[in-house]
Amino acid sequence: MKLLYSAASPYARKVRVLAHELGLSDEIEVVTAAVSPIETNADVAARNPLAKVPTLNLADGTALYDSRVICDYLMSLKPALPMQPATGAERWAVQCRHALADGILDAALLARYEEALRPAELRWPAWQAGQEDKILRGIAQLESETAAFGEAPRIDTVAVACALGYLDLRFGRLAWREQAPKLAAFYEGFAARPSMQRTKPG
Question: DSSP code of 176?
Fold first, then answer.
């Protein structure tokens, strides 16, 4: 398998962390691919019409995207190492937290593009503030659910940890730990895992 990725992409990091946790990292070749919302990477677009990373190329020529689809595929390769409950209410809770973590990242990326790519004279402060409000509401929700995370890594905690890592990388000013001490304690422990250490951006 070949993973097209960017080291700064939190979605790609989520895939890589999960691969490490599943013991699949040695089976995946990682290939750096520079992507931008305003310039199309033709090599990535040839495999993924959205021209986004991560994109996973399989040996049979199939391309998988986006990160949640790739994660589902990787988990299907290691059913003996369940990273989410198979059925029941807990399964939907885990999937919802996974979606919430990705939603925090969606808002963070939009805010990042607004401040890093949009010309200063065209920036919209209310848009920026709206995205940051989504991030902080998501953090507050995760803080209320931290007790349900469990001890063993799962897809929701992998996604949450990668989202928090991205906030530390790009949005230190939000000081999310001040409103989420239980989430901060979770992240301190999870960030020390080898899978997180091996995939740190930069």
Answer: G
